Amino acid sequence: MKIYFCGSIRGGREDVEVYRKIVSKLQNYGRVLTEHVSCTELTERGEDRAAPGDRHIHDRDVDWLRQSDVVVAETTQPSLGVGYELGRAVDMKKKILCLFRPSSGRNLSAMIRGAHDGEFFLVRDYSQEEVENVLEEFFSSLKRT
Description:
Layout: E1 2-6, H1 16-26, E2 31-32, H2 54-67, E3 70-74, H3 80-91, E4 95-100, H4 110-113, E5 121-125, H5 131-144
Parallel strand pairs: 1-2, 1-3, 3-4, 4-5
């Protein structure tokens, strides 16, 4: 299974340790195409400026999104890029799990929380201690469908 993981990069890297934990768990379920999102060396400036540029990053990531079987997004840190990826994933009819930590004191966008349909677009509030169980429940439900 190919998994596309979404997390904030240029919107802020405060949750990178949370991303690392999630990506580590996701690797039990398949190949994480975007594991670089959890890399602590990646700053909010994005990928190395020596990289081919924003167009390359966009096209590469959209290609990975097309290849993916499922999308898992950590949405606690607001990010325009994550919102864009989720919109594209919906258009591609991908199965999506959005994770949000209410303990952050933030409010999840109504455009994300309101998209929850209980089948293809799932939004789960969670604490860091329960993320493993939330992922297990999500991936187990994929096997049943």
